[in-house]
Amino acid sequence: MVSSCLARAACLALCLCLPAAAQACSAFATADSAEVLLAKNFDWNFDGGYLVKSPRAVARRALPLYGGEPAAWTARHGSLTFTQYGCGLPYGGINEPGLTIEMLWLDETVYPSAAPRTIGELEWIQYHLDTCASVAEVLAGVDSFTIAPIGGKIHYLLADATGDLALVEYLDGAPRVSRAEGSSLVCTNDTRRIAELAFAGLRAKELKGNTSRVRYARLRRALEEGGVVPGVEGAFAALAEVQERGATYRTRWTAVYELRSRRLHVRPDGAAAAFAIATSALDYAEGSGITYLDLFGRGAADQEFTTLTSGAQAALLELNLPKVGLADQLEAIATHLLDPSASSVHALADRGTLRIRVTTDTPRAFARVAVFGSQREIESRRSARAGSVLLDAVQREFAFYNLPAGRYAVGAFHDLDQDGRPGRDEPLAFFQREAAGGDVEFGRVSFDLDHTGRTVEIELR
Q: Which end of the chain is more exposed for a tag (fewer CB within 10 A), N or C?
Protein backbone atom coordinates (compact mmCIF):
# COMPACT_ATOMS: atom_id res chain seq x y z
CA MET A 1 0.00 0.00 0.00
CA VAL A 2 1.41 3.41 -0.98
CA SER A 3 1.10 5.93 1.85
CA SER A 4 0.73 9.65 1.23
CA CYS A 5 1.84 12.45 3.50
CA LEU A 6 -0.73 14.22 5.67
CA ALA A 7 -2.73 16.49 3.41
CA ARG A 8 -4.27 19.80 4.31
CA ALA A 9 -8.06 19.63 4.32
CA ALA A 10 -10.27 22.42 3.00
CA CYS A 11 -13.51 22.88 4.92
CA LEU A 12 -16.40 23.55 2.56
CA ALA A 13 -20.03 23.90 3.51
CA LEU A 14 -21.57 21.96 0.60
CA CYS A 15 -25.00 20.40 0.83
CA LEU A 16 -23.84 17.03 -0.48
CA CYS A 17 -26.39 14.21 -0.65
CA LEU A 18 -24.60 11.01 0.30
CA PRO A 19 -26.49 7.70 0.07
CA ALA A 20 -26.96 5.53 3.13
CA ALA A 21 -24.52 2.66 3.59
CA ALA A 22 -25.57 -0.76 2.39
CA GLN A 23 -27.42 -2.76 5.02
CA ALA A 24 -27.69 -6.51 4.81
CA CYS A 25 -28.66 -9.43 7.03
CA SER A 26 -29.66 -10.10 10.64
CA ALA A 27 -28.41 -12.96 12.79
CA PHE A 28 -28.14 -14.29 16.32
CA ALA A 29 -26.65 -17.25 18.15
CA THR A 30 -27.89 -18.79 21.39
CA ALA A 31 -26.79 -21.64 23.63
CA ASP A 32 -28.02 -23.63 26.61
CA SER A 33 -27.45 -27.13 27.96
CA ALA A 34 -29.76 -28.67 25.34
CA GLU A 35 -28.86 -27.03 22.03
CA VAL A 36 -26.87 -24.32 20.27
CA LEU A 37 -28.62 -22.34 17.54
CA LEU A 38 -27.33 -19.91 14.95
CA ALA A 39 -30.03 -18.21 12.89
CA LYS A 40 -29.78 -15.73 10.02
CA ASN A 41 -31.75 -13.79 7.43
CA PHE A 42 -29.72 -13.38 4.26
CA ASP A 43 -30.77 -10.03 2.78
CA TRP A 44 -29.45 -8.94 -0.60
CA ASN A 45 -30.36 -7.21 -3.85
CA PHE A 46 -30.10 -10.13 -6.26
CA ASP A 47 -31.70 -13.53 -6.31
CA GLY A 48 -30.46 -17.11 -6.46
CA GLY A 49 -28.68 -19.24 -3.92
CA TYR A 50 -27.04 -22.61 -3.52
CA LEU A 51 -26.03 -25.10 -0.87
CA VAL A 52 -22.65 -26.69 -1.57
CA LYS A 53 -21.45 -29.91 0.06
CA SER A 54 -17.65 -30.20 0.18
CA PRO A 55 -15.90 -33.39 1.35
CA ARG A 56 -12.73 -33.87 3.35
CA ALA A 57 -9.30 -33.71 1.71
CA VAL A 58 -10.26 -31.05 -0.85
CA ALA A 59 -7.12 -29.05 -1.75
CA ARG A 60 -7.75 -25.31 -2.00
CA ARG A 61 -5.73 -22.22 -2.85
CA ALA A 62 -7.01 -18.67 -2.45
CA LEU A 63 -7.76 -16.71 -5.61
CA PRO A 64 -4.69 -14.62 -6.57
CA LEU A 65 -6.72 -11.64 -7.77
CA TYR A 66 -4.91 -8.93 -5.82
CA GLY A 67 -1.32 -10.10 -5.59
CA GLY A 68 0.47 -11.47 -2.55
CA GLU A 69 1.03 -15.15 -1.75
CA PRO A 70 -2.36 -16.91 -1.80
CA ALA A 71 -3.06 -19.15 1.19
CA ALA A 72 -3.19 -22.89 0.43
CA TRP A 73 -4.74 -25.64 2.56
CA THR A 74 -6.36 -29.07 2.53
CA ALA A 75 -9.75 -29.63 4.16
CA ARG A 76 -9.75 -31.72 7.34
CA HIS A 77 -13.53 -31.46 7.71
CA GLY A 78 -16.42 -31.68 5.30
CA SER A 79 -18.86 -28.76 5.18
CA LEU A 80 -22.24 -27.60 3.92
CA THR A 81 -22.27 -23.94 2.85
CA PHE A 82 -24.50 -21.24 1.36
CA THR A 83 -23.27 -19.33 -1.68
CA GLN A 84 -24.30 -17.35 -4.73
CA TYR A 85 -21.01 -18.13 -6.51
CA GLY A 86 -20.33 -21.81 -6.04
CA CYS A 87 -17.55 -23.83 -4.45
CA GLY A 88 -15.10 -22.10 -2.13
CA LEU A 89 -16.83 -18.70 -1.90
CA PRO A 90 -19.43 -19.27 0.83
CA TYR A 91 -21.61 -16.78 2.69
CA GLY A 92 -21.73 -19.16 5.65
CA GLY A 93 -22.14 -22.77 6.66
CA ILE A 94 -21.57 -25.64 9.09
CA ASN A 95 -18.86 -28.30 9.16
CA GLU A 96 -18.75 -31.87 10.47
CA PRO A 97 -17.77 -30.99 14.08
CA GLY A 98 -20.60 -28.42 14.20
CA LEU A 99 -18.56 -25.22 13.82
CA THR A 100 -20.84 -22.66 12.16
CA ILE A 101 -19.84 -19.34 10.59
CA GLU A 102 -22.06 -16.71 9.00
CA MET A 103 -21.15 -13.31 7.59
CA LEU A 104 -23.01 -10.00 7.59
CA TRP A 105 -22.23 -6.67 5.96
CA LEU A 106 -20.18 -4.18 8.02
CA ASP A 107 -19.37 -0.88 6.36
CA GLU A 108 -16.61 0.01 8.86
CA THR A 109 -14.54 -3.04 7.91
CA VAL A 110 -10.87 -2.42 7.13
CA TYR A 111 -9.06 -5.73 6.61
CA PRO A 112 -5.51 -6.54 7.78
CA SER A 113 -2.78 -6.25 5.16
CA ALA A 114 0.48 -7.14 6.93
CA ALA A 115 0.48 -10.96 6.92
CA PRO A 116 2.39 -12.73 4.12
CA ARG A 117 -0.47 -15.06 3.12
CA THR A 118 -3.52 -13.64 1.31
CA ILE A 119 -7.11 -14.85 1.39
CA GLY A 120 -10.48 -13.50 0.23
CA GLU A 121 -13.25 -12.39 2.59
CA LEU A 122 -15.47 -15.35 1.66
CA GLU A 123 -12.57 -17.79 1.41
CA TRP A 124 -11.90 -16.88 5.07
CA ILE A 125 -15.13 -18.72 5.91
CA GLN A 126 -14.25 -21.79 3.81
CA TYR A 127 -10.73 -21.96 5.26
CA HIS A 128 -11.97 -22.08 8.84
CA LEU A 129 -14.78 -24.54 8.14
CA ASP A 130 -12.22 -26.76 6.38
CA THR A 131 -9.56 -26.60 9.09
CA CYS A 132 -11.16 -25.78 12.47
CA ALA A 133 -13.44 -27.68 14.82
CA SER A 134 -14.19 -24.90 17.30
CA VAL A 135 -14.53 -21.16 17.77
CA ALA A 136 -11.33 -21.20 19.84
CA GLU A 137 -9.38 -22.61 16.90
CA VAL A 138 -10.69 -19.87 14.62
CA LEU A 139 -9.86 -17.12 17.09
CA ALA A 140 -6.32 -18.41 17.48
CA GLY A 141 -5.64 -17.43 13.87
CA VAL A 142 -7.67 -14.27 13.24
CA ASP A 143 -4.53 -12.28 12.41
CA SER A 144 -2.93 -14.95 10.20
CA PHE A 145 -3.93 -13.52 6.81
CA THR A 146 -3.95 -10.46 4.66
CA ILE A 147 -7.59 -10.33 3.58
CA ALA A 148 -7.95 -9.19 -0.05
CA PRO A 149 -11.69 -8.96 -0.72
CA ILE A 150 -13.57 -9.11 -3.98
CA GLY A 151 -15.40 -6.16 -2.51
CA GLY A 152 -17.41 -7.37 0.49
CA LYS A 153 -16.93 -5.56 3.80
CA ILE A 154 -18.16 -8.08 6.34
CA HIS A 155 -17.93 -9.34 9.90
CA TYR A 156 -18.32 -12.92 11.06
CA LEU A 157 -20.66 -14.54 13.61
CA LEU A 158 -19.28 -17.84 14.96
CA ALA A 159 -20.68 -20.64 17.12
CA ASP A 160 -19.70 -24.20 17.89
CA ALA A 161 -21.33 -27.26 19.42
CA THR A 162 -19.91 -26.51 22.90
CA GLY A 163 -21.88 -23.25 23.02
CA ASP A 164 -18.91 -20.98 22.43
CA LEU A 165 -20.11 -17.83 20.59
CA ALA A 166 -18.06 -14.99 19.09
CA LEU A 167 -18.14 -12.06 16.69
CA VAL A 168 -15.04 -11.22 14.62
CA GLU A 169 -14.74 -7.71 13.18
CA TYR A 170 -11.79 -6.20 11.32
CA LEU A 171 -11.50 -2.52 12.22
CA ASP A 172 -8.61 -0.18 11.38
CA GLY A 173 -6.82 -3.17 9.86
CA ALA A 174 -6.86 -5.32 13.00
CA PRO A 175 -9.18 -8.01 14.40
CA ARG A 176 -11.62 -7.14 17.17
CA VAL A 177 -13.26 -10.12 18.88
CA SER A 178 -16.46 -9.88 20.93
CA ARG A 179 -17.78 -12.71 23.08
CA ALA A 180 -21.34 -13.37 24.21
CA GLU A 181 -22.49 -11.73 27.40
CA GLY A 182 -24.84 -14.40 28.69
CA SER A 183 -26.31 -17.06 26.45
CA SER A 184 -26.81 -15.12 23.20
CA LEU A 185 -25.06 -12.92 20.68
CA VAL A 186 -26.91 -10.70 18.17
CA CYS A 187 -25.42 -9.25 15.01
CA THR A 188 -26.72 -6.94 12.28
CA ASN A 189 -24.73 -4.34 10.30
CA ASP A 190 -23.03 -2.19 12.92
CA THR A 191 -19.97 -2.86 15.00
CA ARG A 192 -20.63 -4.43 18.36
CA ARG A 193 -19.75 -1.13 20.05
CA ILE A 194 -22.18 0.92 17.95
CA ALA A 195 -24.95 -1.66 18.33
CA GLU A 196 -24.59 -1.68 22.11
CA LEU A 197 -24.55 2.13 22.32
CA ALA A 198 -27.66 2.35 20.15
CA PHE A 199 -29.46 -0.39 22.07
CA ALA A 200 -29.01 1.49 25.32
CA GLY A 201 -31.16 4.25 23.85
CA LEU A 202 -33.63 1.97 22.05
CA ARG A 203 -34.20 -0.61 24.78
CA ALA A 204 -37.41 0.95 26.07
CA LYS A 205 -38.58 2.85 22.99
CA GLU A 206 -41.11 2.05 20.29
CA LEU A 207 -39.20 0.59 17.36
CA LYS A 208 -39.99 1.89 13.89
CA GLY A 209 -38.50 1.05 10.52
CA ASN A 210 -36.04 -1.74 9.82
CA THR A 211 -32.59 -0.18 10.06
CA SER A 212 -29.64 -2.19 11.31
CA ARG A 213 -29.99 -0.78 14.83
CA VAL A 214 -33.74 -1.36 14.97
CA ARG A 215 -33.28 -4.96 13.81
CA TYR A 216 -30.60 -5.44 16.45
CA ALA A 217 -32.90 -4.05 19.14
CA ARG A 218 -35.83 -6.23 18.04
CA LEU A 219 -33.71 -9.39 18.22
CA ARG A 220 -32.16 -8.44 21.55
CA ARG A 221 -35.59 -7.80 23.01
CA ALA A 222 -36.97 -11.08 21.67
CA LEU A 223 -34.11 -13.09 23.16
CA GLU A 224 -33.93 -11.28 26.49
CA GLU A 225 -37.68 -11.27 27.10
CA GLY A 226 -37.86 -15.00 26.42
CA GLY A 227 -34.79 -15.68 28.53
CA VAL A 228 -34.23 -19.10 26.93
CA VAL A 229 -32.99 -20.56 23.66
CA PRO A 230 -36.04 -20.06 21.41
CA GLY A 231 -35.93 -23.36 19.50
CA VAL A 232 -36.14 -23.65 15.73
CA GLU A 233 -39.72 -22.39 15.48
CA GLY A 234 -38.98 -19.47 17.78
CA ALA A 235 -35.84 -18.60 15.81
CA PHE A 236 -37.80 -18.42 12.57
CA ALA A 237 -40.43 -16.27 14.31
CA ALA A 238 -37.80 -13.85 15.62
CA LEU A 239 -36.20 -13.50 12.19
CA ALA A 240 -39.60 -12.96 10.57
CA GLU A 241 -39.88 -9.74 12.60
CA VAL A 242 -36.72 -8.32 11.00
CA GLN A 243 -37.18 -9.49 7.41
CA GLU A 244 -36.45 -7.17 4.51
CA ARG A 245 -39.50 -7.03 2.23
CA GLY A 246 -38.52 -4.62 -0.55
CA ALA A 247 -39.25 -5.27 -4.22
CA THR A 248 -35.58 -5.83 -5.09
CA TYR A 249 -33.78 -5.71 -1.75
CA ARG A 250 -35.23 -8.40 0.48
CA THR A 251 -34.57 -11.51 2.56
CA ARG A 252 -33.49 -14.18 0.05
CA TRP A 253 -33.45 -17.02 2.58
CA THR A 254 -33.65 -17.71 6.30
CA ALA A 255 -31.45 -20.36 7.87
CA VAL A 256 -31.50 -21.89 11.36
CA TYR A 257 -28.66 -24.23 12.37
CA GLU A 258 -28.89 -26.73 15.23
CA LEU A 259 -25.22 -27.27 15.99
CA ARG A 260 -25.38 -30.24 18.36
CA SER A 261 -28.06 -32.02 16.34
CA ARG A 262 -26.21 -31.15 13.11
CA ARG A 263 -29.40 -30.04 11.39
CA LEU A 264 -29.92 -27.11 9.03
CA HIS A 265 -33.36 -25.62 8.47
CA VAL A 266 -33.80 -23.42 5.38
CA ARG A 267 -36.70 -21.35 4.10
CA PRO A 268 -35.95 -19.80 0.68
CA ASP A 269 -37.74 -16.61 -0.30
CA GLY A 270 -41.20 -17.47 -1.62
CA ALA A 271 -41.25 -21.00 -0.18
CA ALA A 272 -44.37 -22.07 1.70
CA ALA A 273 -42.34 -23.77 4.43
CA ALA A 274 -38.82 -24.52 5.57
CA PHE A 275 -37.10 -27.81 4.86
CA ALA A 276 -34.51 -29.54 7.03
CA ILE A 277 -31.21 -31.24 6.17
CA ALA A 278 -29.45 -33.65 8.51
CA THR A 279 -25.96 -32.37 7.81
CA SER A 280 -24.33 -35.27 9.69
CA ALA A 281 -25.90 -37.72 7.21
CA LEU A 282 -24.19 -36.18 4.18
CA ASP A 283 -21.27 -38.04 2.59
CA TYR A 284 -18.09 -36.10 3.38
CA ALA A 285 -15.72 -38.96 2.58
CA GLU A 286 -12.64 -38.16 0.53
CA GLY A 287 -13.47 -38.57 -3.12
CA SER A 288 -17.24 -38.25 -2.63
CA GLY A 289 -17.20 -35.11 -4.76
CA ILE A 290 -18.43 -31.57 -4.45
CA THR A 291 -22.20 -31.38 -4.93
CA TYR A 292 -24.75 -28.58 -4.83
CA LEU A 293 -28.44 -27.90 -4.34
CA ASP A 294 -30.23 -24.99 -6.02
CA LEU A 295 -32.24 -23.42 -3.20
CA PHE A 296 -34.75 -22.10 -5.71
CA GLY A 297 -34.89 -25.16 -7.95
CA ARG A 298 -37.66 -27.71 -8.15
CA GLY A 299 -35.72 -30.30 -6.20
CA ALA A 300 -34.71 -28.07 -3.27
CA ALA A 301 -37.10 -29.52 -0.68
CA ASP A 302 -36.32 -33.04 -1.92
CA GLN A 303 -32.60 -32.32 -1.37
CA GLU A 304 -31.56 -33.35 -4.85
CA PHE A 305 -27.83 -32.55 -4.67
CA THR A 306 -26.01 -32.84 -8.00
CA THR A 307 -22.34 -32.83 -8.94
CA LEU A 308 -20.80 -29.40 -9.26
CA THR A 309 -19.05 -29.74 -12.61
CA SER A 310 -16.76 -27.09 -14.09
CA GLY A 311 -19.58 -26.12 -16.45
CA ALA A 312 -22.08 -25.76 -13.62
CA GLN A 313 -19.55 -23.78 -11.59
CA ALA A 314 -18.90 -21.43 -14.52
CA ALA A 315 -22.64 -20.92 -15.01
CA LEU A 316 -23.07 -19.87 -11.37
CA LEU A 317 -20.21 -17.39 -11.62
CA GLU A 318 -21.47 -15.96 -14.91
CA LEU A 319 -24.87 -15.38 -13.32
CA ASN A 320 -23.75 -13.47 -10.21
CA LEU A 321 -20.07 -12.47 -10.13
CA PRO A 322 -20.53 -9.60 -12.65
CA LYS A 323 -23.14 -8.15 -10.30
CA VAL A 324 -20.39 -7.38 -7.79
CA GLY A 325 -18.08 -5.83 -10.35
CA LEU A 326 -15.99 -8.84 -11.37
CA ALA A 327 -16.83 -9.97 -14.90
CA ASP A 328 -13.31 -10.96 -16.01
CA GLN A 329 -11.71 -14.41 -15.91
CA LEU A 330 -14.96 -16.21 -15.08
CA GLU A 331 -13.93 -19.47 -16.74
CA ALA A 332 -10.48 -19.34 -15.15
CA ILE A 333 -11.97 -18.64 -11.72
CA ALA A 334 -14.43 -21.53 -12.13
CA THR A 335 -11.57 -23.91 -12.94
CA HIS A 336 -9.51 -22.61 -10.02
CA LEU A 337 -12.28 -23.12 -7.46
CA LEU A 338 -12.66 -26.78 -8.40
CA ASP A 339 -8.98 -27.51 -9.10
CA PRO A 340 -6.41 -24.88 -8.02
CA SER A 341 -3.62 -26.99 -9.55
CA ALA A 342 -5.04 -26.14 -12.99
CA SER A 343 -5.51 -22.46 -12.22
CA SER A 344 -4.76 -19.76 -14.79
CA VAL A 345 -6.18 -16.88 -12.73
CA HIS A 346 -3.94 -13.82 -12.74
CA ALA A 347 -3.88 -10.74 -10.54
CA LEU A 348 -6.06 -7.83 -11.61
CA ALA A 349 -4.08 -4.83 -12.85
CA ASP A 350 -6.95 -2.36 -13.08
CA ARG A 351 -8.29 -2.35 -9.49
CA GLY A 352 -7.01 -0.81 -6.29
CA THR A 353 -7.78 -0.40 -2.59
CA LEU A 354 -8.26 3.07 -1.17
CA ARG A 355 -7.80 3.54 2.56
CA ILE A 356 -8.76 6.80 4.25
CA ARG A 357 -7.36 7.72 7.66
CA VAL A 358 -9.58 10.26 9.37
CA THR A 359 -7.86 12.23 12.13
CA THR A 360 -9.76 14.50 14.51
CA ASP A 361 -8.88 16.58 17.54
CA THR A 362 -12.39 16.05 18.91
CA PRO A 363 -13.38 12.37 18.72
CA ARG A 364 -17.17 12.29 18.59
CA ALA A 365 -20.10 11.10 16.52
CA PHE A 366 -19.51 9.79 13.01
CA ALA A 367 -17.41 10.77 10.04
CA ARG A 368 -19.06 10.41 6.65
CA VAL A 369 -16.59 9.61 3.86
CA ALA A 370 -17.24 9.81 0.10
CA VAL A 371 -15.19 9.14 -3.05
CA PHE A 372 -15.79 11.25 -6.18
CA GLY A 373 -14.71 10.32 -9.70
CA SER A 374 -15.23 13.62 -11.50
CA GLN A 375 -16.02 17.32 -11.25
CA ARG A 376 -19.56 16.44 -12.29
CA GLU A 377 -20.00 14.19 -9.24
CA ILE A 378 -18.79 16.97 -6.95
CA GLU A 379 -21.06 19.56 -8.58
CA SER A 380 -24.06 17.23 -8.53
CA ARG A 381 -23.39 16.75 -4.82
CA ARG A 382 -23.72 12.99 -5.08
CA SER A 383 -21.36 10.07 -4.68
CA ALA A 384 -22.03 6.41 -5.45
CA ARG A 385 -19.31 5.43 -2.97
CA ALA A 386 -19.82 6.56 0.60
CA GLY A 387 -19.82 5.24 4.16
CA SER A 388 -19.62 6.16 7.84
CA VAL A 389 -17.11 5.45 10.58
CA LEU A 390 -17.53 6.11 14.31
CA LEU A 391 -14.91 8.60 15.51
CA ASP A 392 -14.33 7.03 18.90
CA ALA A 393 -10.56 7.58 18.68
CA VAL A 394 -8.23 10.32 17.45
CA GLN A 395 -7.66 8.35 14.22
CA ARG A 396 -9.90 5.85 12.46
CA GLU A 397 -9.69 4.13 9.08
CA PHE A 398 -12.20 3.57 6.31
CA ALA A 399 -11.64 1.57 3.12
CA PHE A 400 -13.03 1.20 -0.39
CA TYR A 401 -12.11 -2.07 -2.09
CA ASN A 402 -12.08 -3.13 -5.73
CA LEU A 403 -12.05 0.43 -7.08
CA PRO A 404 -11.22 0.71 -10.80
CA ALA A 405 -7.87 2.40 -11.37
CA GLY A 406 -8.31 6.08 -12.09
CA ARG A 407 -8.44 9.53 -10.58
CA TYR A 408 -10.49 10.28 -7.47
CA ALA A 409 -11.21 12.90 -4.84
CA VAL A 410 -12.11 12.10 -1.22
CA GLY A 411 -14.24 14.18 1.12
CA ALA A 412 -15.29 13.72 4.75
CA PHE A 413 -17.26 15.54 7.45
CA HIS A 414 -18.45 15.13 11.03
CA ASP A 415 -21.94 13.67 10.60
CA LEU A 416 -23.20 14.84 13.98
CA ASP A 417 -26.88 14.22 13.25
CA GLN A 418 -26.24 11.03 11.18
CA ASP A 419 -28.38 12.19 8.28
CA GLY A 420 -25.67 11.58 5.65
CA ARG A 421 -25.45 15.27 4.64
CA PRO A 422 -23.10 18.00 5.89
CA GLY A 423 -25.05 20.68 7.71
CA ARG A 424 -24.02 24.19 8.70
CA ASP A 425 -22.06 22.89 11.68
CA GLU A 426 -20.67 19.90 9.76
CA PRO A 427 -18.19 21.36 7.23
CA LEU A 428 -16.90 19.05 4.51
CA ALA A 429 -13.14 18.52 4.16
CA PHE A 430 -11.28 17.26 1.06
CA PHE A 431 -7.99 15.46 0.80
CA GLN A 432 -5.65 17.66 -1.23
CA ARG A 433 -1.98 18.44 -1.73
CA GLU A 434 -2.39 22.21 -1.96
CA ALA A 435 -4.76 24.66 -0.38
CA ALA A 436 -7.89 25.27 -2.42
CA GLY A 437 -9.94 28.38 -2.24
CA GLY A 438 -13.52 29.03 -3.27
CA ASP A 439 -15.26 26.32 -5.23
CA VAL A 440 -13.96 22.77 -5.16
CA GLU A 441 -12.00 21.90 -8.30
CA PHE A 442 -11.68 18.19 -8.98
CA GLY A 443 -8.24 18.66 -10.51
CA ARG A 444 -6.90 20.29 -7.36
CA VAL A 445 -8.32 17.87 -4.79
CA SER A 446 -7.96 14.59 -6.73
CA PHE A 447 -5.22 11.97 -6.93
CA ASP A 448 -4.36 8.84 -8.91
CA LEU A 449 -5.24 5.32 -7.78
CA ASP A 450 -3.65 2.26 -9.40
CA HIS A 451 -3.52 -1.46 -8.61
CA THR A 452 -0.93 -0.91 -5.84
CA GLY A 453 -3.56 0.95 -3.84
CA ARG A 454 -3.21 4.08 -1.77
CA THR A 455 -3.72 5.55 1.67
CA VAL A 456 -4.78 9.19 2.13
CA GLU A 457 -5.39 11.19 5.28
CA ILE A 458 -8.05 13.75 6.09
CA GLU A 459 -8.07 15.94 9.18
CA LEU A 460 -11.44 16.95 10.62
CA ARG A 461 -11.60 19.76 13.15
A: C
